[in-house]
Each structure stands twice: as structure tokens, then as C-alpha cells.
């Protein structure tokens, strides 16, 4: 409990004494016989005891009520956006096709049926018992003439196969010769082409196969058995092919195929093995069963009529003891699931699929059960054949070989379903009109089992056995909704669950359900498709091809839909149109742009109304991302968006409190800018572009500049990418703007003026973008930025003719003609007139604003944003290596990676002015820019190094001459080429270009070494456009669990927080009860190893850690229990050094280290105590702008955990309040003081008070709740 709370408790205790009465006020007064002095003494003692007791009670109550209320339970800068890793985002990109999608789906187009029965003649190696099995294709061959019986059997076999593949072509060969088989096989392969051929061989009337892999056929007269090698058979049929051998010792054929050293003729053995499938009725040493309960071709019956043979085999084993002949009378059709026969077939399919799914490897299951419909049916039925024939001591063989499945527990579920159906059969047959079939509870019970697994299952446990059954249940309207809900819960468990579901074959089912009109299925279907597209982007093609996209468009525009569900629909549509032109066209025609913009507009309008709930940020984020993907690269979509006033609507989203929403809106605005296929636009394209389109893109650029000062690096990165698109689309204008931005006025002396508009490299943000001729504080700068007013650099002009321009302090206005960026001297060549007119135009000011913004981004404190900014500079023709990096250590300006190039020789000094070093020739005429040098520094106090101090304090003058004639002369190819802004420019033969005197820096923030830092020639060889990853990163939200509100480590986080709260309370109590010690008593001393002195120190409240920052901004984390430094890292690599403050964020959780530099930049580090694992979570320019006359800044900041506010100020006229939850400037508090703030403290218990100490000795208290401070 805080000291203030203790005082309040004791004050309440004193008030509760009620004027000193020890008892109730209305109690009668009792006269005592004790002496009066004793009575008074006792009264005083009782008063003291009561006061102490009441104080203890109130302290306990206050402690219980408030606990650690001054310690916030909210964590800041710990969202997923602060863990963005560009490499991991690229690795987890959506669109990677998982293994579920079969790349080589096949179809069995031709079926060859070869029957060698020779009815009436038994083969010599077969001894038949009497009675024995006779039925062939459920026909008794001895019931009629042998020829007719053979024909009927062949026809019946074809009918049984057509049940599974009706579209295949069939050819039947009865008792064939070798030539007949050869002709049959060659004909089937010729007609099938690349499709699979099925060869069915029934050898019940010939001897068993030989050990060499030979089957038997007949001669023409049926007097001899002729062997036929399966190798010849394979050469005729080719691949792919499936063989079915129904004969005794059929395993010998399988062995012969597998033992052949060279599989196939002319093909690779591996491919032949993969494309060949064999099914054999029994093993190599086994004979077919002759039980009269089974047909003679029991293997063929299992493969082609599974329900009939399964029930006939089950009847003798059931307690019902039904007549097997009743099985043929089961009512219904196999393709009607509402009938008894159809339900049995449905259950059988689900059970056999489930057995295969749980037994086979995933790849083998895909190949055998999902690649070919006929092959899948045959293998389902093969599982039944194994169960039935193993009961008759036969073991069917296959290639690929399958593990045993005849004892799988799911067969008991089949027996149960069959018995339930058969038990109703007598009633249904006796009274077909009144009897009603009762469906089986099989699917209901299996869904319940699946639901139980969902309660306790995970990726570390065995997958659910019922997953294939859930797929089958989707076919039933009565169970569909429950199955979809359970399926959605399963998919939400992670990518592994989604891969399992897709591998089992869920995709075509949920794709077909998009054609359904049931409204109760819409929400769960949208959720399932969200999960699918979060893993596999390639499904966008299937959705557009099958017309599934209107389903999501209609859902997005439906009333009474929750915002999060709309966000899922927007995500699905965003994936559909992502880099897919057909998807974009289809969604544009469906009116998706208008729908998304209307929802954004509605959300903003509702938010603007009083007491209205804030819009769902996830919905706004994905509406913006969907729009960005929808019109990216689509001219039709961009034109429609401009007609719908999309830039204005999206511009209002840029002020939303969520950084992800602002980043998404920035991305959407950026994709409205048209770029060429190669990322560049030629000059002809720029000149021929539609005027309205150019105006709209310039307006979009003005809107985008609103987020230049955003506190989130995620938003600033998207701004940089949008600027890159603008720079590539308007490349010529950008290059001219870069040249104009760097060019000083003609025939004038320029002295830098420290003011709001001076391009002080220390301030990469709005301080550079101020109005010319006026001093702006940060509030005015931000307001100007939002209003889109052009920003000008402020310089003091001293004309060479003797007339002087007014100083910024006295200038009340500054028209564009007086602006040094846009002003042109009368002495400039006439060829500059077009460029001069362009620079005066409003469009030119927009491009200059963009260039200035890009310069600020290139100097951003967040590495990725700075890298993107430098790429945009290269697109603009500026050498990014020559960006000025500020340094206040030596009072000058430093440069990074700035290689020296030729400069002009010095000239006699002229004090106090800046002279033109070369002739500035306009960009439009293709000449180079002039170079300016500062010859006289401004006044500075003795304690500060001279401005741009060099090795010599003497004044210097640079040459003033026109080199146009030299540049227009012949080029000397012998001179080396000089790299300028990424392009190669040859030196001229002029001797003035051959010197090596180093030049100085201009006030624009670019070095002026050599010829120029701007290349006016654009080319397709420049750098590619940087890629945004806000969309890819945002897709990760839907890859994570959405239905579970808490993470697995939530309980651990809460337990750790409670423990630290307890430690905090105990520590406060110990401090309150501790005895006083002398300040001179030294507790400990450690040597940090710093050579420049310690500038800031911070102790961790719960760990034995001390954070130390020295003058070089080297951060050291010291463990004072161990007495050693656990981690050391550099806060930044820029030459400008100086730490202002260290703060800890989220003390009760995994704390973050906030380091505020003297230049106003704040950096927040994660994992700062782990050696080599520290990461920059966020950084931004917290202090933006300074008051007139300031020579530099020393930022003053303080952190308030209760509110999440960071207060920052310096030599500016206001206190900036940054909301770290929003990563946004919350407010600006005017200081109303003529002196700057030198110290500041934010109250940690009263979250509304801020105290500041000013340089004039005053102390001010601000209440941020007050509208008028």
C-alpha cells in the first residue's frame, strides 16, 4: 500500500473517533468511584488502543480493496505486431500447397474383363468337393447351357463394375486365346491413352499360375491350356494399370511382378512400380474357398458387390438367424441414403474409409483412396474381402501391400449397423406401406465420439479415428450442421488439424456446400473456409472456377452478422483476389469494392456519433486489406475506387487507434497508385497519364503523409512502401523534386536558421516539414501535416546585390515565390523555365513533401523502416548512402558510407555568404545541380563547437562559375566513371572536376560531394519495389486458434503476475517498517567497464538487475547478486549519442526496457536480459520539433504504467502524450512557459497528474483530464 493511502487510512481513523467518545454517544454516563486522574489515564489508554485497532482494520481493508492498484495489470507493446520477423513472415506465406492436394489425379477409362471358365470342365490341378461353391457373378453356370451361362456371367460382371465406374468403356473376352488377350489389351491401351486400364482375370476354369508368373488361356479348339506371361501382359497394357486376379495361387503373379529385376519395358522401374496396382484373391500356396455359403468368385463378389456378400456372410453369424435369401429383398437403392440399402452402403463406405485412414500411411491412403474413384472403391471392398476370405483360410494379396485390417475394431460397428438394419427387414417386407424404417444411430454415435476427442485431444495425441466419418456425415442434412461445427472446432486446433482434414478429403465436400442456400450453415462455412485459405491460398482457383466467391460477398453484405464473422468473409475474399486476376475481375463484377467501402464508411460514421461503440478493428483491418488486394494491379478496380471516393474514406481510417488498422489503410491507399508491370513508369507513360488519375494520386500522397509521424513502425513501413510505389509511378517528378529539394536559391547567400523549418538532421519528422518563414511548434506542425499544407525549409536569405530577405522571426508570410526550394533566379538559363513553372505548381509541392517524408523515413529509428526509406531514395535517383546522419557530439554533421568523389577547388574567401559553386541547370534540360557550401558558421556560444567546424577555422570560398559549356563538350572516355545515385555518369574533361578537395554539407540533409546526389535519369535497372508484408502477417491471425479465448500459458502468466504483486506488497511493507540508514553507507559497488561514464541507471523492482546506459548509449544489464554483466548491447549505431532516460514497461510481466535518447527517439527492447537475444520491439521519434533559437535538444520523458502514457518534451512549447497501447500521439499539452522543460515526473498513483520542472526554476503541475490546462 502506498504511503498516501496509509495517511488517508489514519485520517479516517482519527475522524472515526467521534470527538473522543469511547462508547456510544447516547450511552448514559456512569459515575465511577475511582480517582479522577486514574479515570483520565484509562480513558487515554483506551483511546490509543481503539485508534490503533481502527487503523489496523482500515489498513487491512484498504490493502484488500486496493491491493496493488498502483501496479497496472495491462501490458504494453507486447502484441504480435511487436514480434514481427520478416524472415518468419516470408516463410509462413500463405499459398504453399500442402500434401493433401493430389498432383496427378487419374481416371480409369477402360476395363478389360477376361474370363477363363471353360464351364463343365474342371482344371487338372483342382480337386473340387461336393457340394462346393458354384456361383459366378451370382449366376449358377450349370443352370443353363454353358455358352449362354458364360455370356450371362460376362454381362453380369460388367454390370457389377459399372456400379462403381459407369463412365468407363468395357470390353469382355470370354475363354480367350493368347491372340484375343493381346488384341484386347492393345486396344484398351490405345483408346485409354494416358488413363488407367483395369484388367480383370478370372481363372477358375484353368490351372493355377506358374512360379514364373504365367497365367493360362486356351487354344482355339479348347484342347490345350496355353501359358501367357504376365510380363507380356504388362507390355501390352502399359501403365498406369490395375490388375485383378481371381484364381487359386494368385499370389504367385504378385510375387512375379515384384521380383522382376527390370519392371516394365523401356521405363524406369520406380515409375512402373508406382503406376501399377495388383489385387490377388489369395496367397501363392492357397486355394480358393469352396464353401457353399459363399460364391465361387467370392473375391470378385467382395470387390464388386460388397453389401450383398457382407450381409450373406454375416447372417449365419448373427443371433437373428435370418434367411440369407431375404437380403436380395432389402428395399431401397444404394445411392439413396434414406433407404435401408442406401444407408448400409453409406455406413460401409464410412467404415472402410475410416479403417484405411487409421491404418495406412498418409501418402498411400492418398494414392489408393483419393486418386481414382474406381481404385478407391476397389480398395474399400478389398478390405472386406480380406475379412471374409481370412475366415476361409485365404489371405488376399495386393501391391502396394496393405497391413492386416480384418480385426479392426470398426468392423464391430459395421456388424452393429447391419444387425440393426436386418432386424427391421421382416417388418418392412411384411407391411411395406405402414412400416417405417428407423435410421441407424451409427453417425450420431460417431459424432459424439469425435466430440469427446475434441475435448481432450491435441496435436501430441493420436488423430481422431472418426475424421473420415465426419466427412461422410456432411452428405446428410440431418447431421450436417453438427458435423460442420465439430469440424470447425477441429480445424481451429492448428495447421496440423487442417492438413489432416484436407488429406482425408474434406475439400470437395465443403466446396459443394457453398451452393447450398441454408442460412444456418453460413457462419460455420465461412469459418471453415477461413481456416482452409489460411493454409492453402491455391484454393482461390477452385472457388472462382466453381462460382463460390458470391457466397462470401453476399455474406459480407448480409445484415445482422457479427463483425468478427464479417472479418472472416473479408479475409476469404482477400485471399481469393490475392495476385489472381480472374478472382479480382469476378469480385469487382460482384460489387465488392462498393460493399467494403460502405461498411468502412458505416463503421466510421457510427464511431463519430456520441456514446457509440467503437468499430471492430479486425473488420476494419480486413476490409482495408481486401480492398488493397482487390484493386492492386487492376486498372478497372482503381478507377471504380476513385469514383467511389475511396481515398477520402480510407483517409479517415488513418486516425483509428489500432496500428494494424492504420497500417492496413495505408497499404490500401498505396495499392491505389498505379505502377507498371516492371515497377517503373516511363516518361511517356507519365506524360500520357490521365490528368484526373494524377491528381487523385497526388491527393493520396497528401493523405498518406498523415501517418509520417505515427508511433508504430508497422504503419511507417507501409508508408515507405506506398512512397516507393509513388516514386516508381511518378519517377520523373520524384527525381525533379529531389533535385529541387536540394537546390538553394540562385545568386543568394544562405545561412541556416535554427527554427521550425530548418532541416536539422536531428529531427527527421515534422520539424522539417514546417511552413517557410514561420516558427511552428509540434502542435502546429501536426495540424499542418493533417491539413496537407505544403512544408518548406526555412533559411535566411542574403542577396548578393545587397538587399536582404527578412529573417524567419520577422517574416509574417512566405509566398511560394520566396521559398528557397521553389524560387529560381533571373539569371538561370531559359531552359529552366519549364522546371521553374513545375516547381511553383501545387503538384510540385506535393512531390517535394513526399521527398522530404522519404528523407525522414530513410533516417527512421526503426531499422526496417529506414531500409525501406533508403530504397525509396534510390528509386528517386538519390544515393541513399549520402543521407546525412546527425551527430551532436562534435557540433557538426556526420555521414555514413559516404565515399569521397571529385569536388571543386577552393576560391578566395568571401565572408558571411554562401556562393554558387557550379551552375544549377534545370532537371528538365538534363544538366547537373549546383553545389553549395557554407562559408560562415552562425553565432554559437563558447561551450559549443563551431558549426560544421573543420580542420581550419579560416573562411573559405568556393568557385562560382558556369560549367554548362564544359558539360556540353565531348566526353573523355578515358576518365573513370563515378557512381551517382546508382547510375553511371562519366567525368567531363573539364579540369575543375579533377580535384579531390572534400566538400561540405548543405542544410538539406544531403552531402554535396562531387557533382550531385540526384540522378535525373530513370531506368528499369533500378531496385525493385519493396514488398509489403502487412497482408501476409495479418493472415497469421486466422492460422491461430480463434475459438479458444485463452492461450495455454495464460494460467502461468496470471500466476507469475500474482506472485510479483505479492512481492511488491511485501517489499513496500518492508520499506515502511525498515529502520533509517545513513546515506553514506555504501551497499555495493560494481565496475561496468564503461569508458565514457554512466548517464542513466535503473533498478529492476523484482529481479537483482540494474540497467546501465553510458554516454555512447551502450546498455549493460548487471546482475548484482552474481556481480556480473549478463547482457550488453548498443542502443543504436548512429553517431549522435546520448541517453535521456531508462524506464521499465510491464514490470509485473516480462518487462521491456525503454531507452529514451537525447535526440527524442525512444526505443523499446524485448528480452534485454538475455545475452544476444535482445530485440527491438518498437521505436519512434517521441519529440518532434523545437522552439525557435534552440541549438539542440535534450529530450525529457517519463513513463506512466497505469495509463500507458509516455510523456515527452524538450525545448518545445508542449508536452507530448504518447499512448503506447495505440502507438499514437494522444494529445499535446501546452506548457505556457517561456522556458523549456528540464525535468518531468508522471504520478504513478494518480494517473492524471504530471509535474514538470522548467529551466527558470518553476515547477508546474498538469492535470491531463482537464480540457483547459
TrEMBL record:
Chain ranges passing through the membrane: none
Gene3D superfamilies recorded: Leucine-rich Repeat Variant, YVTN repeat-like/Quinoprotein amine dehydrogenase
Keyword annotations from UniProtKB, A to Z: Repeat, WD repeat
Gene Ontology BP terms: TOR signaling
GO cellular component, one term: TORC1 complex
Superkingdom of origin: Eukaryota
One family name in Pfam for this protein: Raptor_N
Comp. bias intervals (Low complexity): 802-819
Polar residues bias spans: 825-834
Region (Disordered): 802-835
UniProt xrefs under SMART domains: Raptor_N, WD40
Domain Raptor N-terminal CASPase-like: 105-258
Family: Belongs to the WD repeat RAPTOR family.
Protein name: Raptor N-terminal CASPase-like domain-containing protein
Organism: Physcomitrium patens (Spreading-leaved earth moss)
Lineage: Eukaryota, Viridiplantae, Streptophyta, Embryophyta, Bryophyta
Amino acid at each position: 500500500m502506498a504511503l498516501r493511502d496509509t495517511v488517508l487510512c489514519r485520517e479516517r481513523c482519527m475522524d472515526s473517533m467521534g470527538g473522543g467518545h469511547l462508547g456510544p454517544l447516547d450511552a448514559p454516563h456512569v459515575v465511577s468511584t475511582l480517582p479522577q486522574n486514574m479515570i483520565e489515564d484509562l480513558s487515554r489508554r483506551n483511546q490509543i488502543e481503539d485508534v490503533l485497532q481502527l487503523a489496523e482494520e482500515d489498513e487491512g481493508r484498504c490493502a484488500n480493496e486496493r491491493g496493488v492498484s498502483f501496479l497496472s495489470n495491462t501490458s504494453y507493446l507486447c502484441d504480435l505486431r511487436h514480434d514481427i520477423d520478416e524472415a518468419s513472415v516470408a516463410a509462413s506465406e500463405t499459398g504453399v500447397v500442402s500434401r493433401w492436394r493430389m498432383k496427378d489425379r487419374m481416371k480409369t477409362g477402360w476395363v478389360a474383363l477376361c474370363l477363363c471358365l471353360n464351364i463343365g470342365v474342371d482344371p487338372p490341378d483342382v480337386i473340387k468337393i461336393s457340394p462346393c461353391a458354384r456361383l459366378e457373378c451370382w449366376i449358377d453356370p450349370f443352370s443353363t447351357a454353358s455358352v449362354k451361362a458364360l455370356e450371362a456371367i460376362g454381362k453380369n460382371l460388367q454390370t457389377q463394375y459399372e456400379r462403381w465406374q459407369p463412365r468407363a468403356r468395357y470390353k469382355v473376352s470370354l475363354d480367350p486365346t493368347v491372340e484375343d488377350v493381346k488384341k484386347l489389351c492393345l486396344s484398351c491401351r490405345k483408346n485409354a491413352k494416358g488413363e488407367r486400364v483395369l484388367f480383370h482375370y478370372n481363372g477358375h476354369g484353368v490351372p493355377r499360375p506358374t512360379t514364373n508368373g504365367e497365367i493360362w488361356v486356351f487354344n482355339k479348339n479348347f484342347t490345350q491350356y496355353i501359358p501367357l506371361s504376365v510380363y507380356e501382359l504388362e507390355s501390352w497394357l502399359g501403365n498406369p494399370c490395375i490388375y485383378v486376379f481371381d484364381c487359386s495361387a494368385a499370389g504367385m503373379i504378385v510375387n512375379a511382378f515384384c521380383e522382376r529385376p527390370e519392371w516394365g519395358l523401356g521405363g524406369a522401374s520406380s515409375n512402373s512400380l508406382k503406376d501399377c496396382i495388383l489385387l490377388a484373391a489369395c496367397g501363392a500356396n492357397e486355394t480358393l474357398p469352396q464353401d457353399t455359403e459363399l460364391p465361387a468368385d467370392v473375391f470378385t463378389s467382395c470387390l464388386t458387390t460388397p453389401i450383398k456378400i457382407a450381409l450373406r456372410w454375416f447372417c449365419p453369424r448373427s443371433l437373428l438367424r435370418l434367411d440369407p435369401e431375404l437380403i436380395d429383398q432389402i428395399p431401397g437403392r444404394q445411392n439413396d441414403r434414406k433407404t435401408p440399402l442406401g444407408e448400409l452402403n453409406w455406413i460401409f463406405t464410412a467404415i472402410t474409409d475410416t479403417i484405411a485412414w487409421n491404418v495406412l500411411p498418409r501418402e498411400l491412403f492418398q494414392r489408393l483412396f483419393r486418386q481414382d474413384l474406381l481404385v478407391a472403391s476397389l480398395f474399400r471392398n478389398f478390405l472386406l474381402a480380406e475379412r471374409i476370405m481370412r475366415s476361409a483360410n485365404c489371405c488376399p494379396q495386393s501391391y502396394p501391400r496393405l497391413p492386416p485390417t480384418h480385426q479392426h475394431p470398426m468392423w464391430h460397428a459395421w456388424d452393429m449397423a447391419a444387425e440393426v438394419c436386418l432386424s427391421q427387414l421382416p417388418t418392412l417386407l411384411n407391411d411395406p406401406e405402414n412400416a417405417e424404417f428407423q435410421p441407424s444411430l451409427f453417425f450420431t454415435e460417431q459424432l459424439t465420439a469425435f466430440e469427446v476427442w475434441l475435448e481432450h485431444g491435441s496435436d501430441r495425441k493420436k488423430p481422431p479415428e472418426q475424421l473420415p466419418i465426419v466427412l461422410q456425415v456432411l452428405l446428410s442434412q440431418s447431421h450436417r450442421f453438427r458435423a460442420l461445427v465439430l469440424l470447425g472446432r477441429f480445424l481451429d486446433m492448428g495447421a496440423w488439424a487442417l492438413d489432416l482434414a484436407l488429406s482425408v478429403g474434406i475439400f470437395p465436400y465443403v466446396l459443394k456446400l457453398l451452393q447450398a442456400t441454408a442460412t444456418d450453415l453460413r457462419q460455420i462455412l465461412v469459418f471453415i473456409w477461413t481456416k482452409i485459405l489460411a493454409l492453402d491460398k491455391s484454393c482461390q482457383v477452385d472457388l472462382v472456377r466453381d462460382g463460390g466467391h458470391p457466397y462470401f460477398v453476399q455474406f459480407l453484405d448480409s445484415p445482422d452478422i457479427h463483425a468478427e464473422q464479417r472479418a472472416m468473409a473479408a479475409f476469404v475474399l482477400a485471399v481469393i483476389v490475392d495476385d489472381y486476376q480472374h478472382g479480382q475481375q469476378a469480385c469487382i463484377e460482384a460489387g465488392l469494392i462498393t460493399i467494403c467501402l460502405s461498411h468502412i464508411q458505416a463503421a466510421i460514421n457510427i464511431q463519430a456519433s456520441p456514446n457509440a461503440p467503437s468499430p471492430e478493428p479486425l473488420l476494419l483491418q480486413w476490409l482495408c486489406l481486401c480492398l488493397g488486394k482487390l484493386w492492386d494491379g487492376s486498372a478497372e478496380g482503381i478507377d471504380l475506387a476513385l469514383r467511389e471516393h475511396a481515398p477520402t474514406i480510407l483517409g479517415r481510417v488513418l486516425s483509428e487507434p489500432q496500428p494494424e488498422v492504420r497500417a492496413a489503410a495505408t497499404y490500401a491507399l498505396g495499392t491505389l497508385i498505379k505502377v507498371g508491370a516492371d515497377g517503373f513508369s516511363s516518361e511517356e507513360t507519365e506524360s500520357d497519364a490521365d490528368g484526373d488519375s494524377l491528381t487523385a494520386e497526388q491527393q493520396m500522397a497528401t493523405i498518406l503523409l498523415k501517418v509520417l509521424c505515427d508511433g508504430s513502425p508497422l504503419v511507417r513501413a507501409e508508408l515507405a512502401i506506398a512512397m516507393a510505389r509513388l516514386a516508381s509511378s511518378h519517377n520523373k517528378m520524384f527525381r525533379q523534386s529531389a533535385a529541387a529539394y536540394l537546390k538553394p536559391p540562385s545568386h543568394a547567400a544562405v545561412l541556416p536558421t535554427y527554427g521550425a523549418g530548418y532541416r536539422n538532421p536531428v529531427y527527421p519528422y515534422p520539424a522539417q516539414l514546417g511552413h517557410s518563414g514561420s516558427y511552428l511548434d509540434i502542435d502546429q506542425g501536426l495540424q499542418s501535416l493533417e491539413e496537407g499544407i505544403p512544408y518548406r525549409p526555412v533559411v535566411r536569405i542574403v542577396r548578393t546585390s545587397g538587399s536582404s530577405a527578412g529573417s524567419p522571426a520577422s517574416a509574417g508570410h512566405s509566398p511560394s515565390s520566396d521559398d528557397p526550394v521553389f524560387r529560381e533566379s533571373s539569371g538561370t538559363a531559359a531552359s529552366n523555365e519549364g522546371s521553374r513553372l513545375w516547381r511553383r505548381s501545387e503538384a510540385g509541392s506535393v512531390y517535394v513533401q513526399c521527398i522530404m517524408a522519404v528523407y525522414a523515413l530513410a533516417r527512421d529509428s526503426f531499422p526496417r523502416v529506414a531500409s525501406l526509406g533508403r530504397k525509396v531514395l534510390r528509386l528517386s535517383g538519390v544515393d541513399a548512402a549520402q543521407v546525412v546522419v546527425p551527430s551532436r557530439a562534435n557540433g557538426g554533421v556526420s555521414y555514413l558510407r559516404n565515399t569521397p568523389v571529385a569536388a571543386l577547388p577552393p576560391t578566395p574567401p568571401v565572408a558571411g555568404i554562401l556562393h554558387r559553386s557550379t551552375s544549377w541547370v534545370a532537371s528538365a534540360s538534363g544538366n547537373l545541380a549546383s553545389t553549395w557550401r557554407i562559408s560562415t558558421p552562425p553565432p554559437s556560444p563558447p561551450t559549443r563547437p563551431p558549426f560544421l567546424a573543420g580542420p581550419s577555422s579560416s573562411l573559405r570560398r568556393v568557385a562560382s562559375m558556369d560549367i554548362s559549356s564544359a558539360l556540353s563538350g565531348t566526353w573523355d572516355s578515358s576518365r573513370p566513371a563515378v557512381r551517382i545515385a546508382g547510375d553511371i555518369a562519366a567525368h567531363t574533361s573539364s579540369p575543375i572536376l579533377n580535384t579531390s578537395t572534400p566538400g561540405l554539407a548543405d542544410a538539406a540533409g544531403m552531402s554535396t560531394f562531387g557533382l550531385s546526389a540526384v540522378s535525373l535519369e530513370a531506368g528499369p535497372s533500378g531496385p525493385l519495389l519493396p514488398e509489403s508484408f502487412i497482408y501476409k502477417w495479418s493472415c497469421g491471425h486466422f492460422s491461430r486458434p480463434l475459438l479458444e479465448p485463452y492461450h495455454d500459458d495464460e494460467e502461468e502468466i496470471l500466476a507469475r503476475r500474482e506472485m510479483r504483486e505479492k512481492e511488491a506488497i511485501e517489499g513496500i511493507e518492508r520499506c515502511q517498517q525498515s529502520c533509517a540508514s545513513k546515506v553514506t553507507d555504501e551497499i555495493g559497488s560494481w565496475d561496468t567497464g564503461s569508458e565514457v561514464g554512466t548517464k542513466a541507471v535503473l533498478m529492476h523492482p523484482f529481479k537483482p538487475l540494474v540497467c546501465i546506459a553510458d554516454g555512447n548509449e551502450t546498455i549493460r544489464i548487471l546482475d548484482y547478486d552474481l556481480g556480473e554483466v549478463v547482457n550488453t548491447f548498443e542502443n543504436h549505431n548512429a553517431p549522435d549519442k546520448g541517453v535521456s532516460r531508462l524506464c521499465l514497461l510491464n514490470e509485473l510481466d516480462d518487462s521491456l526496457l525503454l531507452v529514451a535518447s537525447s535526440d527524442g527517439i525512444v526505443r523499446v527492447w524485448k528480452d534485454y536480459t538475455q545475452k544476444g537475444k535482445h530485440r527491438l520491439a518498437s521505436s519512434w521519434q517521441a519529440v518532434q520539433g523545437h522552439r525557435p533559437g534552440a541549438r539542440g535538444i535534450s529530450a525529457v520523458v517519463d513513463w506512466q504504467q497505469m495509463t500507458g502514457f509516455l510523456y515527452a518534451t524538450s525545448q518545445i512549447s508542449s508536452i507530448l502524450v504518447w499512448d503506447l497501447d495505440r502507438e499514437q500521439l494522444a494529445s499535446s499539452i501546452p506548457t505556457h512557459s517561456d522556458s523549456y522543460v528540464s525535468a518531468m515526473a508522471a504520478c504513478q498513483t494518480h494517473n492524471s497528474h504530471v509535474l514538470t520542472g522548467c529551466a527558470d526554476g518553476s515547477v508546474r503541475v498538469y492535470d491531463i483530464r482537464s480540457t483547459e490546462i
